Amino acid sequence: MEFELKVKIVSPLIKSLQLPKYATAGSAGLDLRACVEEPVKLAINETVAIPTGIAIQIPTPHMAGFVFARSGLASKHGIQLANGVGVIDSDYTGEIICAMRNTGKEDFVIYPGDRIAQIVFIPIAKANIVLVDQLSPTERGEGGFGSSGLR
To answer: Residue 142 has what DSSP assignment?
Structure first.
């Protein structure tokens, strides 16, 4: 499924190379880049808000943007998003800012234009809340952590 995504440049620092794009034809996420004036040192266990220099307009309330860590940064350097996954609601039109967290074993430097995260667009189903006294029985029931077995 393809759709039109409006992208607005909100920082004079951004260059055309920093606009989000898919790395390959099979990529699920658009790469988001650091829109910073100079390198930013991310110390061990530190969280820093890194601007992307762009704002977007998602065309329907039936879709949201989900910002994920880049797998290479996370697995090789421990660089993740502080909130796990960022959610960009369809009615948010401000700058996308990524709270980057260093869980690695050494300081890490984010350079201007570095790919820091990726945004994936996913359809959203809205729930109509129905208050009930009892839920329908299931095979698992109220079994929680580990109740379905180890393997």
So the answer is: T
